[in-house]
Design brief:
Keywords: ATP-binding, DNA-binding, Nucleotide-binding, Phosphoprotein, Transcription, Transcription regulation. By secondary structure, the protein is of the alpha/beta class. It has 20 helices and 18 strands. Bound molecules: adenosine-5'-triphosphate.
Length: about 425
């Protein structure tokens, strides 16, 4: 939110006074009495912080360095009661906008806040112009759905908001999460991903939060968890809907104040990372059934991006197919084969229950079997070799029959002859009465 200020000051009366006065000036003011409390505001969209130099749990001037790492555009004004010029110099060195000595007239504070706010807003606008959208370029598709997803993704990337990605398996939630990270200010910080449904609850907990040596048999030395690895960056929690209720409560704590406890540890650790979660299950249904915490749902679902299944955006199929044919051919060090229209048509007609992932697999197999040209029979061959999904074969077969009938200008006798089947069979396969 624009015009937001954080006041970090341990003297409550003083803090309340500043907050009241600044609110009357039209600012939204958040208050913290300690560095620990202030940390939970760092992910919020706050443009200016007013910080006391001497705080109960640390040095406010040292804290500037931490703030600048997580919120580079936040402008900081330091309050020092010590009337020490050295404090002021150190604050500026650490990246503060300016400093004030307690007892300075309030007008000086207003003046500095207004200046700092306008500098911060300008910087934020500049950084939005320079947003790196290369991650989104990797998302292929011209359908209205994909265009909308990219536009929302780019917008959300510029904020610190948590994001929930919905959609079936293989629709591209992972690639979208990475694109959001790459377009965010945390681009140079880590992006870590984990599939929460692939691991048992205990292993998942130690993967997420890490453990202390001796926490369990085999824990010979301390291990960092993914939340610690992702500090300042992004953690992608895939299939969060499958997480146990106990772990859900621990994730909620991370979301509330960045804190967690490693397995076998007694002290609290902290992280400051953006959470992008994804699921193919209906989370609201899971909330109703008591399988997913409602409070966690509302925390992770600050922004929801839904990617429809591939069959619902069939116009993207030829684009994706051509893209992956070229990409995989290059990887296999073979010339890009010619693609027949029937091949593309068959791909477009299929329902793709495994979505883009399945499309990539089918293309890879077709390329391996092809010799310079991608024809529809390669798709059939694939399935015969795999003897896996008969519906895929049926879809391709039906599509092939329709294609030949069309080529024969609707002449079914001619089409049946070309296909090497009887006219009766052709009618049956097309679902027509003979
Ligand atoms: N629009 C797209 N453009 C290019 N590649 C895509 C697109 N969508 C998906 N892919 C590719 O398809 C594969 C599967 O996508 P991804 O892993 O992102 O799906 P997912 O929704 O996260 O699946 P799951 O829920 O099973 O983890 C990946 O190789 C990804 O790069």
């Amino acid at each position: 939110m624009l015009n937001s200020i954080l006041i970090l000051e341990d003297e409550k009366n003083q803090r309340n006074l500043y907050a009241r006065v600044l609110r009357t000036e039209g600012y939204t003011v958040f208050e913290a009495g300690s560095i620990d409390q202030a940390r939970k505001f760092l992910k919020k969209n706050i443009q200016v912080a007013i910080i006391d130099a001497g705080l109960p749990d640390g040095d406010g001037i040292d804290f500037i360095v931490e703030i600048k790492k997580t919120s580079p555009h936040m402008e900081i004004i330091v309050f020092t009661g010590r009337a020490s010029i050295n404090d002021g110099i150190k604050a500026i060195k650490n990246g503060a906008f300016d400093y004030l000595i307690k007892g300075d007239v309030p007008q000086k504070l207003f003046f500095l806040v207004a200046q700092a706010m306008s500098k911060a807003v300008k910087q934020i606008q500049e950084s939005k112009k320079n947003i790196n959208t290369t991650g989104f370029d990797a998302i292929i598709g011209e359908s209205a759905a994909i265009k909308k997803i990219k536009a929302i993704g780019i917008k959300v990337a510029a904020t610190y908001a948590n994001v929930l990605l919905l959609g079936d398996t293989g629709v591209g939630k992972d690639i979208l999460a990475e694109a959001i990270h790459k377009a965010s200010e945390c681009v140079n910080e880590p992006f870590v991903a984990i599939n929460c449904s692939a691991l048992g609850a205990e292993v998942l907990e130690s993967e997420l939060f890490g453990y202390k040596a001796g926490a369990f048999t085999g824990a010979v030395k301390d291990k960092k968890g993914l939340f610690e690895e992702a500090n300042k960056g992004t953690i992608f929690l895939d299939e969060i809907g499958d997480m146990s209720l106990l772990l859900q409560s621990k994730i909620l704590r991370v979301l509330e104040n960045g804190s967690f406890i490693k397995v076998g540890d007694t002290k609290t650790s902290y992280t400051n990372c953006r959470i992008i979660a994804a699921t193919h299950v209906n989370l609201l249904e899971a909330v109703k059934n008591g399988r997913f915490r409602e409070d966690l749902y509302y925390r992770i679902a600050a922004f929801i991006i839904y990617t429809p299944s591939l069959s619902e955006r069939a116009t993207d199929i030829p684009l994706l197919a051509k893209h992956y044919i070229a990409k995989l051919a290059a990887k296999m060090e073979m010339p890009v084969p010619k693609i027949t229209t029937a091949f593309l048509n068959a791909l477009s007609a299929y329902s793709w229950p495994g979505n883009v992932r399945e499309l990539i697999n089918v293309i890879e197999r077709s390329l391996i079997l092809s010799s310079g040209i991608l024809t529809i029979d390669l798709l059939e061959l694939n399935e015969e070799n795999k003897s896996r999904n008969s519906s895929l074969l049926e879809d391709f077969e039906l599509n092939h029959i329709k294609y030949i009938v069309e080529e024969c200008n609707g002449n079914k006798v001619k089409a049946a002859r070309l296909l090497g089947i009887s006219v009766a069979t052709l009618y049956r396969k097309l679902g027509l009465k003979y």
